[in-house]
């Protein structure tokens, strides 16, 4: 077993050490799919525990010898995000279980953020919330300017918090796939990073206009963002069609 805990939550060390047992026997189920997520109340404090799917054999070798587990990456990324001034549920601990020298399961423990995902004010709302999209564009620009690329910047991994002035504050979840730069990421990487949160072309243009204004990219930057987005969507459609033909979807 390998584990690490946020020093501010050292009082939970014994509970974290028995996490696999606690996870099997208790908790409030939130999600059960590829990964399993449960919620626990420990002495009046609510925690979220995400158990990542047991990796396949070759993945176990990779995660055991060449790459950090998803739980460890989420734990480290949570700390780095907060250090750079962005909200994400506080990183509390991670724990890995091992068998015959190979990783079996990885658990990530964090705080609770019950805010809703932006999807309900984007693709599930007609017309879409233009204020939220403009605020989201500014948020994305701030992430990039501070050297942060969320590896899965989609409409369920960004949560929104309405503010008293009618605008929105955002927080990030599902943070095990992130890239951090000392400076600003290349613009090509930034544009590619923004292709996954909507399929609505009108919404994306509105977003692109506000993002480009924040980054001082001009109209040519807007058109470049839209071109990158269109290329991504065409490739995605071709991939889906191929998987359907191969009966893999």
Plain-language structure description:
With 249 residues, the chain is of the alpha+beta class. Helices cover 41% and strands 23% of the residues. It has helices spanning 13-17, 19-25, 57-65, 70-83, 130-145, 187-193, 201-215, 218-245, and strands spanning 2-5, 28-32, 36-42, 45-52, 91-99, 102-110, 148-150, 158-162, 168-172, 178-180. The strands form three sheets. Strands 1-5-6-4-3-2 form a six-stranded antiparallel β-sheet, sandwiched between helices. Helix 7 (201-215) packs across helix 8 (218-245). The mean pLDDT is 94.
The radius of gyration over CA amounts to 20 Å
Spatially, the strands of the biggest sheet line up as 1-5-6-4-3-2
Please work out how many helical segments DSSP would assign: 8
List how many beta strands DSSP finds: 10
For the termini, the CA-CA separation is 36 Å
Give unreliable regions as ranges.
none
* Shape descriptor: globular
Main sheet: strands, sense, barrel: 6 strands, antiparallel
Instruction: Give me the secondary-structure category.
Output: alpha+beta
Please indicate the percent range of residues in DSSP E strands (runs of 2 or more): 15-25%
* Helical percentage: 40-55%
Question: Could you tell me the mean pLDDT?
Answer: 94
H/E element order: EHHEEEHHEEHEEEEHHH
Topology:
Elements lengths: L1 E4 L7 H5 L1 H7 L2 E5 L3 E7 L2 E8 L4 H9 L4 H14 L7 E9 L2 E9 L19 H16 L2 E3 L7 E5 L5 E5 L5 E3 L6 H7 L7 H15 L2 H28 L4
Antiparallel strand pairs: 1-5, 2-3, 3-4, 4-6, 5-6, 7-10, 8-9
């Amino acid at each position: 077993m390998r584990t690490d805990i946020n020093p501010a939550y050292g009082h939970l060390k014994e509970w974290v050490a028995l996490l696999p047992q606690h996870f099997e026997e208790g908790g409030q189920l939130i999600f059960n799919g590829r990964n399993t997520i449960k919620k626990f109340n420990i002495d009046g404090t609510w925690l979220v525990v995400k158990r990542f799917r047991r990796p396949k054999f070759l993945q176990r070798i990779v995660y055991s010898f060449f790459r950090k587990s998803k739980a460890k990456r989420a734990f480290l990324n949570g700390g780095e995000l907060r250090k750079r001034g962005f909200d994400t549920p506080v990183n509390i601990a991670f724990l890995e279980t091992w068998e015959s020298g190979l990783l079996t399961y990885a658990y990530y423990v964090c705080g609770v953020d019950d805010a809703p995902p932006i999807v309900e004010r984007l693709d599930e709302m007609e017309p879409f919330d233009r204020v939220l999209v403009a605020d989201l564009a500014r948020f994305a620009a701030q992430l990039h300017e501070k050297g942060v690329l969320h590896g899965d910047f989609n409409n369920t991994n960004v949560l929104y918090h309405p503010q008293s002035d009618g605008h929105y504050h955002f927080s990030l979840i599902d943070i095990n796939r992130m890239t951090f730069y000392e400076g600003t990421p290349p613009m090509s990487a930034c544009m590619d990073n923004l292709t996954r949160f909507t399929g609505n072309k009108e919404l994306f243009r509105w977003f692109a206009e506000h993002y480009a204004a924040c980054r001082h990219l001009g109209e040519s930057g807007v058109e470049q963002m839209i071109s990158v987005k269109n290329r991504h969507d065409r490739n995605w459609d071709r991939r889906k069609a191929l998987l359907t033909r191969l009966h893999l979807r």
